[in-house]
Amino acid sequence: MDFGNIRxxxxxxxxxxxxxxxxxxxxxxxxxxxITNSYSDEVGIMKLSSVFDNGENVPKKYTCDGNDxxxxxxxxxxxxxxxxxxxIVDDPDAPGGTFVHWIAYNIDPKTKEIPEGVSLGTGGMNxxxxxxxxxxxxxxxxxxxxxxxxxxxDFDSWPLFEIPPDKAAIESFMEGHIIAQxxxxxxxQR
Length: 190
Description:
The protein is built from three helices and ten strands, in the order H-E-E-H-E-E-E-E-E-E-E-H-E.
């Protein structure tokens, strides 16, 4: 092969890499997990809602200053290809870095609502050291954001973890299998 052909091949590879022709997965900036396909043609965008609107305050009832129970969550437009749902609630404003309040995985994708005070699926280990919901409980000061993140994944064969998995283990296992995501953000201040 002469140098002219080598330059052409190299140029084609470089252009393909620069324009993303080699990998058409989308990256989700909120936690760097890849969404393999949004399935938006099939059902629309997956949605998550609750007793508070996105960006509004989480009612005191659902915090450590209240009853410390999870709010009811309504789920809609889950892609038909989803085999399982995962819910992760965290606080990116915590003083020591992102603090995980709740992990529930292996939730039936036909679920339309997670009732108030009820956990569905299997509980993962949160940063309180439990597998249950732990409500917003920031130190006094500025408001914190609480991200309720719902993922639809294309598998339902979760491993039998010896100990409840933490957020990193769940995210690692979901990598490359997320087909849709919804997020609802609430605020709380003490």
